[in-house]
Amino acid sequence: MKKRILSAVVAAGLAISGVANAAEYQIDKAGAHAFINFKIKHLGYSWLTGRFNDFDGDFSYDKANPNASKINVVINTASIDSNHAERDKHLKGKDFLNVKKFPKATFESSKYEQVSETEGKLTGILELHGVKRTITFPVEKIGEGKDPWGGYRVGFSGETTLKLKDFGIDYNLGPASTHVTLELHIEGIKK
């Protein structure tokens, strides 16, 4: 009985120390070394690609306990950039993002599950266009280490495909354009 209690105390201590050792990272400024890109089929004939130019966030990560990792991202929806001013105006309007009513999109993780040394699954709440939905998508750890300026960095990449109607965006672009793919490339600088 004493051995079981001692084992439980040791396990709890290890779990707590794993959380306490998690380092906090600030996401590198959008456009510098972090990107949120999107792509959607245009009428089924080609891809329309773009990005969000303004976003911020932070995350915690401990390679000794990666399952305790967490991330929060806030996107300025008006920063959408598809490399075409008139199209961007339409994307910001009521047919799509409605940026006046919904100026921000957010993602807050609730769970990270490590699958291999460099791969995992991230689950969390995405709020887009005023709709909150739980999503899960694969994440790849790109690398980590010291930078030339005395800091410490770690980078991740992930991709997910969203059904537009699930987020209240039902503008008819045709049957080939019902889903959008989001790509997140995040580099964090240890705080």
Automatic annotation (TrEMBL):
<dbReference type="InterPro" id="IPR036761">
    <property type="entry name" value="TTHA0802/YceI-like_sf"/>
</dbReference>
<dbReference type="Pfam" id="PF04264">
    <property type="entry name" value="YceI"/>
</dbReference>
<protein>
    <recommendedName>
        <fullName>Lipid/polyisoprenoid-binding YceI-like domain-containing protein</fullName>
    </recommendedName>
</protein>
<feature type="signal peptide">
    <location>
        <begin position="1"/>
        <end position="22"/>
    </location>
</feature>
<keyword id="KW-0732">Signal</keyword>
<feature type="domain" description="Lipid/polyisoprenoid-binding YceI-like">
    <location>
        <begin position="24"/>
        <end position="189"/>
    </location>
</feature>
<dbReference type="InterPro" id="IPR007372">
    <property type="entry name" value="Lipid/polyisoprenoid-bd_YceI"/>
</dbReference>
